[in-house]
Amino acid sequence: MKVAEPPELTELQGLIEDGRSWFDIRELCEVQCGQRRFPVHSFTLGNPSLDVPAVGFFGGVHGLERIGAEVVLAYMRSLLMRLPWDTVLREQLKGVRLVFMPMVNPGGLWLGTRANPNGVDLMRNSPVEAVEPVPFMLGGHRIGPGLPWYRGPRGEPMQPEGAALCALVEKELLSRRFSLALDCHSGFGAQDRIWFPYAYTVQPIRHLPEMHALRIIFDQSHAHHRYVFEPQSRQYLTHGDLWDYLYMRATEDHERIFMPLTLEMGSWLWIKKNPRQIFSRSGIFNPLIEHRQQRVMRRHIALLDFFTRAASSHEHWLPDAAGRERHRAQALASWYSEVVKKK
Ligand SMILES: [Zn+2]
Question: Which residue from 93, 226, 250, 330 has the fewest beta carbons nearer than 10 Å?
């Protein structure tokens, strides 16, 4: 029986062919999946100088959540189509580096699993241990690869897909004074969420004032947006989060600002509007009807573009010393009041 190629893999191939003359395209690693081998690609665009800020977009970490890869691919396609004529975009690219890893886990996408082909959940596989209790199973476990949220065997190196993501972040993002990252997922829940670290503790990150300042410029410039912007720890804690790991690496240098965010697109909404989705082949984490998918795309592509602008113009919204104190107080009050009370 011939299995149809997932459309995301076809589009990835299309971007490699059509984007060759604009993007710098690299093969970061290869993943064996049954009879097939899948290369994992990165695409970069814009000014390679380490003096300019960078923004990275990641998708498909969880193979099941295809809409995450689709949003990144759609943003890349939109940029590619604008490059031949859009002088504003070309001007913008002189001052920023764009990094894409649209399909981190192609083997999982091919198999229709959250985990990679080894059964490991890449977002539970970093060496970070939670310091407070995590939810049973969901927070990451070492029982075995047959169960979701498996962290991988203790003491083993990171899975190749996660290691490739970390190497790319180190090379392209952490090599700069300022960078942002957005990792696109979909999950349970009715709302679209934008999460920032930590996932391993309820304590705030050092760059809480910067995160709050970013949220404020987003609220102000997208007045009717429906995203919930919050630390992941407000929802649940986990072991092994890759962005916790990379954020901690980044803060080893006090001069560096690295702001990793995760987009968690709410899929309850889609299910409520179309209960058939639970039984559909493409699964519950993906919108079923085409016009709904188009709406999902439109909304989130505006978000991705916001992050590119925020990275390009970071000097104009990052708070100064006095602003940092004000933002920190506001951020603690709106996100960490329970944590502060408990202390
Ligand atoms: Zn996910």
Answer: 226
Distance 120 CA to ligand 1 centre (A): 13
* Counted domains in the chain: 1
Bin 98: left if φ > 0, else alpha if -120 < ψ < 50, else beta: beta
Query: In this structure, are residues 153 and 91 in contact, taking their beta carbons and an 8 Å threshold?
Result: no
Output the CA 15–ligand 1 centroid distance in Å: 23
d(CA 216, ligand 1 centre) in Å:
26
- For residue 45, give both structure tokens: 């665009």
**The CATH number of the domain where 136 resides is what?**
3.40.630.10
Phi-psi region of 67 (alpha: psi -120 to 50; beta: other; left: phi over 0): alpha
Q: State how far the Cα of 193 lies from the Cα of 198, in Å rounded to an integer.
A: 15
Distances (CA, A) of 265 to 57, 59, 60, 216, 262: 15, 12, 13, 20, 9
Is the pTM of the predicted complex or chain greater than 0.85?
Answer: yes
User: Residue 55, Cα to own-chain centre: how many angstroms?
Assistant: 11
Rounded-to-integer distance, Cα 279 and Cα 288, Å: 11
193 Cα–ligand 1 center, Å: 12
Going from the Cα of 297 to the center of ligand 1, the distance in angstroms, rounded, reads: 17
Domain that holds residue 11: 7-342
Max Cα distance, the chain (Å):
65
The backbone region for 89, taken as left when phi is positive above 0, alpha when psi lies in -120 to 50, beta otherwise, is alpha
- Residue 157 is given by DSSP the state P
Q: Which tokens belong to 62? A: 């969880």
* CB proximity list for 259: less than 8 A, separation 6 or greater: 179, 180, 181, 196, 207, 210, 211, 214
pLDDT in tens, 284-333: 667 666 666 777 777 899 999 999 999 999 999 999 999 999 999 999 99
pLDDT tens-digit map of 70-113: 999 999 999 999 999 999 999 999 999 999 999 999 999 999 99
φ/ψ (deg, to 5) at 196: -130, 165
Distance from the alpha carbon of residue 341 to the mean position of ligand 1, in angstroms: 31
In a domain, 2, yes or no: no
